[in-house]
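Researcher: Please translate sequence to structure tokens.
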Amino acid sequence: MKKAIKNLAFVILCILLSAIQGTFGQNKTNTLIGKKFVIKSNILNEERTCLISLPDSYNDPSEISKKYPVIILLDGYTHFKTASGIVHFMSSDRNRNYLMPKSIIIAIENIDRERDFTVTKIKTKRPNTMGGGKKFLRFIEKELISYIDKNYRTKPSRTLVGHSLGGLLTLNSYMDKSSIFNAYISIDPSIWWNEEMMKKNVDSISSISLNKKLYIATANQGESNYDRNKKRHDSLYALIKKKSNTPLNIEIKYFENENHRSVPLVALYDGLKYLNKDE
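Model: Translation complete:
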């Protein structure tokens, strides 16, 4: 298992080096990974900055009618380049991997993570802005995706990707039967934030949610954090499993050699591969 994970990490490193070479290896013209746009949100009452990456074929005259799935990436500034390189490698005709369809990536830059990624407040000594996650999801579904669908050629196939508190919000979206996402990647989610609420969400989970695909990645946060992290992830998975009489569209994977900060790299690749293995 350790050897397999080391090999996976090496493969992904090669992917990113390839992406960097494609970006900076040309002398006469620049190859751009993506571009930035700003959207005014009435729901959040603020402007939000996003990054967008389009497939190489998007502006190909021979594929002008083709539509593409959409990947929404939380913590956008942090993970945009990594995700763009991985998705390009896994879907590009040049690499001939065909591990997933060519996709449009929308990465949302942060303003206030605690506000946007949590749906409940916890008691703190200092004032906090926690608990705005449901409003943030409404912004994504009602305003951002609506904007993307109007301005780009999209399919109604949408994946939400989040890490840490972003992974927690991803799980909350998965358990919401009205969510417009089809698939979810939750990377080392901070279930400790409100474990009891997560259990209640599982108790009331709908068959609509259970029929969607979910990938959960768990990092090695050390023996002292075992109860806080891996044990909670495994327990959540077991609770969801009990709610279904049919095989789940869920995979949970433990990355023993990755910590909380390093795991997004391997989890993005492995998660996208799982979500698209039957496509």
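Researcher: Any highlights?
Model: Residues 70 and 94 are 21 Å apart (CA to CA).
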